[in-house]
């Protein structure tokens, strides 16, 4: 059986590239975005009542990880990237049908637009469906997952004075919690687990219209170097 699905909207996200996006929703509450609905879902009718709901499930397409040949085994970053596991035991992006699912906070509902926070979605992500989070059914008190039993331990994020000032200024300009966003994302330690970079190696990522640079002055420690408006 084959069945065609088509997007009901696209996410406009603070995340402009895959690197440094948290590996699950809720890990960075300051990660915000907006789901822009496509016709015929953009008139307000399809979201009527949703203002009574605090969180929604988004079913979406990993549009930048689509592959023709399904993988049976994947190497989750959570396990250091060197241990393979059955694709269905993981939340890996490379999977049959390329579907992802995230519970995100619904900040505001407008006709044709849902304002979201705590997202783990790339800018432009096509959304296939939206469903309200139903606590009595979706919270499973005795659930367990021995592969991912706790959130990743955060690492310490320090700032240069200049980077802190820049983050503050850009936060005011963008009306976004830029400092918190950077801290929450970098505390997840975005580098691949096998990389042990020397202190002089600079890392960078694009968040909103900003280029953020940091380095690892010591193992398990990040220092944000600068937060500058991107050239393009
Ligand atoms: N919560 C979802 C799930 O369980 O299906 C996503 C989990 S997946 C491990 C999270 C990662 O997906 C992020 O760190 C980001 O790098 C990647 N990602 C997010 N949006 C994507 C997209 N549209 N295409 C490809 N990769 C994406």
From TrEMBL:
Gene Ontology biological process terms from the UniProt entry: methylation
Ranges of residues in domain TsaA-like: 5-142
Keywords: Methyltransferase, S-adenosyl-L-methionine, Transferase
Any one GO MF annotation of this record: tRNA (L-threonylcarbamoyladenosine(37)-C2) methyltransferase activity
PROSITE patterns: TSAA_1 (PS01318), TSAA_2 (PS51668)
Family: Belongs to the tRNA methyltransferase O family.
The protein, known as: tRNA (N6-threonylcarbamoyladenosine(37)-N6)-methyltransferase TrmO
Species per Swiss-Prot/TrEMBL record: Pseudomonas nicosulfuronedens
Gene designation per UniProt: tsaA
């Amino acid at each position: 059986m084959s069945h065609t699905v088509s997007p009901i909207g696209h996410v406009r996200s603070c995340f402009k590239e895959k690197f440094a996006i948290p590996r699950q929703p809720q890990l960075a509450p300051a990660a915000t975005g907006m789901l822009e609905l496509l016709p015929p879902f953009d008139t307000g009718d399809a979201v009527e009542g949703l203002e009574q709901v605090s969180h929604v499930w988004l079913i979406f397409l990993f549009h930048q990880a689509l592959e023709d040949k399904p993988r049976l085994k994947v190497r989750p970053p959570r396990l250091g990237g060197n241990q393979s596991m059955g694709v269905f035991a993981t939340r890996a992006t490379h999977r049959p049908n390329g579907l992802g699912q995230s519970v995100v906070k619904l900040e505001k509902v407008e006709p044709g637009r849902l304002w979201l926070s705590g997202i783990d979605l790339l800018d432009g992500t096509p959304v296939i469906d939206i469903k309200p989070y139903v606590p009595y059914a979706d919270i499973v008190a005795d659930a367990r997952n021995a592969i991912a039993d706790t959130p990743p331990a955060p690492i310490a994020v320090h700032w240069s004075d200049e980077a802190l000032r820049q983050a503050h200024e850009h936060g005011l300009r963008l009306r976004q919690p830029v400092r918190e966003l950077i801290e929450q994302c970098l505390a997840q330690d975005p580098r691949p687990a096998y990389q042990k970079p020397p202190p002089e190696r600079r890392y960078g990522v694009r968040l909103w219209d900003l280029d953020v640079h940091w380095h690892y002055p010591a193992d398990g420690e990040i220092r944000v170097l600068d937060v500058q408006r991107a050239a393009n």
